[in-house]
Design a protein that fits this description.
The protein has about 600 residues and is an alpha/beta fold. The chain has 3 domains: about 325 residues, ABC transporter type 1, transmembrane domain (ABC transporter transmembrane region fold, Up-down Bundle), CATH 1.20.1560; about 140 residues, Rossmann fold (3-Layer(aba) Sandwich); about 80 residues, P-loop containing nucleotide triphosphate hydrolases (Rossmann fold, 3-Layer(aba) Sandwich). It is about 65% helix and about 10% strand. It has a 6-stranded mixed β-sheet with strand order 6-9-10-3-11-12, sandwiched between helices. α10 packs antiparallel against α11. The protein binds thymidine-5'-triphosphate and magnesium ion (MG).
C-alpha cells in the first residue's frame, strides 16, 4: 500500500516530450479529428475577439455618424458571429470528446490484453489495486487530457493570441500598456500552480488514507464489533478525517488568494487603460470605440489565463498517469511461447519431470531436483506437509511459472516447446480455493465457452453429483452467482468446480484437494465425484483424502521441496519412512471415520 501510494503520488513534468511522442501514437488513427479540432479551435478563439472590433466599428463609424442602417447591419453581424461561435463550439466539444473516448477505449483494451498475458510472477509482486488503477483512474486522466485538456490549452492560447493581434491592430501603444501587467500575472499564476500542486498531493495522500482505513474497517467489522473496538476506531478515524479536512482547507486557501489577485491585476489594467487611453481620447489620438474595445479585450483576457493554469494540472496528471501506464505496458514478465511451437495431434498424457529445480525468488529453491514420470491414464497422488511444494509442482506443469533447471515433458516433448494455449487446453485444474466468477451456475461451469452445450453442462454436473443441489435452486442452472459464490456452501462450490473440470473433458486432470472440511454427506459426494473424474485420464492429485491416495497408482512424498519417497500405499507403509509417519499423524483417523 505504502509503495503504491508513493508510485501514485509521483507528479512530474507537465510536458515530457518522450511520453508525448508515445501518446501521439494513440492519436494517430484519429488524425482527421485532430486536424478538425485545431481548425475549429482557431475559429472559435477568433470569433469572440471579433466582437469588440465590431463594437468599435458600431461606435466610431455608425453611431458617430447616426447611421441607423449601418447599425442594424453591424448588429446582424454580431448575431451571426454569436451563432457561428455556438455551432463551431458544439462540434469542437463533441468531436474532441469523441476522439478522447476512442483513444482511451483503445488504451484500456491494450492494457487489459497486456495484463492477461502477464505471468503470475507479476501478480505476486503487484498489489491488485495498482493494476486496477491503471485501467480506471490513470486512463481517465488521459481522457481528460485528450478530450478537454489539450483542446482547451490550444483554444486558450489562441484566444490570447487573437486578443493581442486585434489590440495591436487597433492601437499598438495602448496594447503595450496592457502588456505591462503580463509579467505579474504570469508570476502569480506560477506561484499558485506550485502551491496547488503541493496541496493537491497532500489531499490525495490523506484521501487514500481515509479510503484504506474505511475499507479495512468495513471488511473487518465483525472483529471490531466482537472486541468492542468501536470507540477506539472512531477516534482513529476522526484523526485521519481531520487531516483530510485540514489538507482540503489548505488547498482552498490558495484558490481564495489567487482569484482576488487576478481580479486586482485586472482592475489595475482597467485603470491603466482609463488613464492612458482616456488621455489619448482627450487628445483625439484615439477614438472612444477603441477605448471601449480595449475594455472588452481585457475582460476577455483573464479567463483563458486562469484556465491555462488549471489545465497545467490536467497535463501534469496525464503525464504522470501515462508514465505509470507505459511502465505497466513495458513490463514484460511473460511466460514466452516457443518460436516454432510443436503441435501435438493427439495427447496421450505421458508426463515426465527430469531433475527439476524451481524458485519463486531467484536462489530460493522451493523444488529441488525433482524427477518422476506418469504413464498415460495413471493417477498419482502427491502428499507432504504444508509448504512442501505440492502446489508449486502443478504451477510449473501448467507453466504458470517456468522452471530454472531440468525439464518437464508431455508425451516426450518439452512443455516449453508447446504453445501455452495448447498445453493448457489439455489440462483441467481444480484448485484448493475454488474461484467462482459473477454470472450464473451455467457460465461458471462452461466459463462462457459456447462449444460446451447445455446438455454437456448438465451431464457433467450429474456425473460429479452437483446436479442434485443445483436442481433445487430457484433458477436451477440459471441461478445467479454473486460475490464469488458467497451464497453457496464450500462443498457446493467444490462440486461446481469439479463439473467445470469435467465439462472441459481434459486428457490431464490436476486436482489440488481442498483441506477444508465439509459435512459427511457432501464429503461422500465429493469422494465419488473425484473417483469419476479420474477415470480414463492422466491425473495428478494433491491428496488429503485417504481414498484418493489409496487408489493412486503411485504416491509422491514431498518434503521441503524434495521428492523423498515414491511408491504405492502399501510399499510406502512398509518402508516406515516419512509417508508412514504422515499416515500415522494425518490419515489414520480418516480411516476410522470411514470404516465406522
Ligand atoms: P507450496 O507449493 O504452495 O506448498 P504446498 O502446496 O505443499 O502447501 P499446502 O499443503 O499448504 O498447500 O509452497 C512451497 C513454498 O513456496 C512455500 O515456502 C511458499 C512458497 N510459495 C511462494 O513463494 N509463492 C507461491 O505463489 C506459492 C504457491 C508458494
Ligand atoms: Mg498447496
Amino acid at each position: 500500500m505504502a509503495e503504491q501510494q508513493k508510485d501514485d503520488e509521483i507528479l512530474g513534468k507537465a510536458y515530457d516530450s518522450k511520453i508525448m511522442r508515445r501518446l501521439l501514437t494513440y492519436v494517430k488513427p484519429y488524425k482527421k479529428y485532430v486536424v478538425m479540432a485545431i481548425i475549429m479551435n482557431i475559429i472559435v478563439a477568433a470569433l469572440p475577439a471579433v466582437r469588440p472590433l465590431l463594437s468599435k466599428i458600431a461606435l466610431d463609424t455608425y453611431i458617430a455618424n447616426k447611421d441607423y442602417n449601418g447599425l442594424l447591419m453591424i448588429s446582424m453581424i454580431v448575431l451571426a458571429v454569436l451563432i457561428l461561435q455556438a455551432v463551431v463550439q458544439y462540434y469542437l466539444t463533441y468531436y474532441s470528446e469523441y476522439m478522447g473516448q476512442k483513444i482511451v477505449y483503445d488504451l484500456r483494451v491494450q492494457i487489459f490484453k497486456h495484463v492477461q498475458k502477464l505471468a503470475l510472477r507479476y501478480f505476486d509482486k503487484t498489489p491488485v489495486g495498482r493494476t486496477v488503477t491503471r485501467v480506471t483512474n490513470d486512463v481517465d486522466s488521459l481522457n481528460e487530457m485528450f478530450s478537454s485538456g489539450i483542446v482547451q490549452v490550444f483554444s486558450d492560447v489562441f484566444v490570447i493570441i487573437w486578443i493581442y493581434v486585434f489590440m495591436f491592430g487597433m492601437a499598438w501603444d495602448l496594447a503595450l500598456v496592457v502588456l505591462l501587467v503580463m509579467p505579474f500575472l504570469i508570476y502569480a499564476t506560477m506561484v499558485f500552480r506550485k502551491k496547488v500542486r503541493e496541496t493537491y498531493r497532500d489531499v490525495r495522500k490523506h484521501l487514500a488514507n481515509l479510503n484504506s482505513y474505511m475499507q479495512e474497517h468495513v471488511t473487518g467489522m465483525n472483529i471490531v464489533q466482537i472486541f468492542a473496538k468501536e470507540k477506539d476506531e472512531l477516534e482513529k478515524f476522526s484523526a485521519i478525517n481531520g487531516e483530510y479536512r485540514a489538507a482540503n482547507i489548505k488547498s482552498v486557501f490558495y484558490y481564495a488568494v489567487f482569484f482576488p489577485v487576478v481580479e486586482l491585476l485586472s482592475a489595475i489594467t482597467f485603470g491603466l487603460i482609463i488613464w492612458y487611453g482616456g488621455g489619448e481620447v482627450i487628445q483625439s489620438k484615439l477614438t472612444l470605440g477603441v477605448l471601449i474595445a480595449f475594455f472588452q479585450y481585457t475582460e476577455m483576457f483573464w479567463r483563458p489565463v486562469r484556465d491555462l493554469s488549471e489545465k497545467y494540472n490536467v497535463l501534469q496528471q496525464a503525464m504522470a498517469s501515462s508514465e505509470r501506464i507505459f511502465k505497466l505496458l513495458d513490463d514484460e514478465t511473460f511466460i514466452p511461447d516457443a518460436e516454432n511451437p510443436v503441435k501435438l495431434e493427439k495427447v496421450k498424457g505421458e508426463i515426465e519431470f527430469k531433475n527439476v529445480w524451481f524458485a519463486y525468488n531467484p536462489g530460493e529453491y522451493v523444488l529441488k531436483n525433482v524427477s518422476f514420470d506418469i504413464k498415460p491414464g495413471e493417477t498419482i497422488a502427491i502428499v507432504g506437509a504444508t509448504g512442501a511444494g505440492k502446489t508449486s509442482l502443478i504451477n510449473i506443469l501448467t507453466r504458470f511459472y517456468d522452471i530454472e533447471k531440468g525439464s518437464i515433458t508431455l508425451d516426450g516433448i518439452d512443455i516449453r516447446q508447446l504453445e501455452k494455449r495448447d498445453l493448457r487446453k489439455y489440462i483441467s485444474m481444480v484448485l484448493q480455493d475454488v474461484f467462482l466468477f459473477s454470472g450464473n451456475i451455467k457460465t461458471n461451469i462452461n466459463l462462457g465457452n459456447d462449444e460446451i452445450t447445455d446438455a454437456q453442462i448438465i451431464e457433467a454436473a450429474k456425473t460429479v453429483g452437483a446436479d442434485k443441489f443445483i436442481s433445487k435452486l430457484p433458477n436451477k442452472y440459471e441461478e445467479e452467482v454473486k460475490e464469488k459464490g458467497a451464497t453457496l456452501s464450500v462443498g457446493q462450490r467444490q462440486l461446481i468446480s469439479f463439473a467445470r473440470a469435467l465439462a472441459y473433458n481434459p486428457q490431464i486432470l490436476i486436482l489440488d484437494e481442498a483441506t477444508s472440511s465439509v459435512d459427511t454427506e457432501t464429503e461422500i459426494l465429493i469422494q465419488e465425484a473425484i473417483q469419476k473424474l479420474l477415470v480414463g485420464r492422466t491425473s495428478i492429485v494433491i491428496a488429503h483424502r485417504l481414498s484418493t491416495i489409496q487408489n493412486a497408482n503411485k504416491i509422491l512424498v514431498m518434503h521441503k521441496g524434495e521428492l523423498k519417497e515414491m511408491g504405492t500405499h502399501q510399499e510406502l507403509l512398509a518402508k516406515k519412512g516419512i509417508y508412514y509417519r504422515l499416515y500415522q499423524l494425518q490419515y489414520k483417523d480418516q480411516e476410522v471415520v470411514r470404516t465406522v
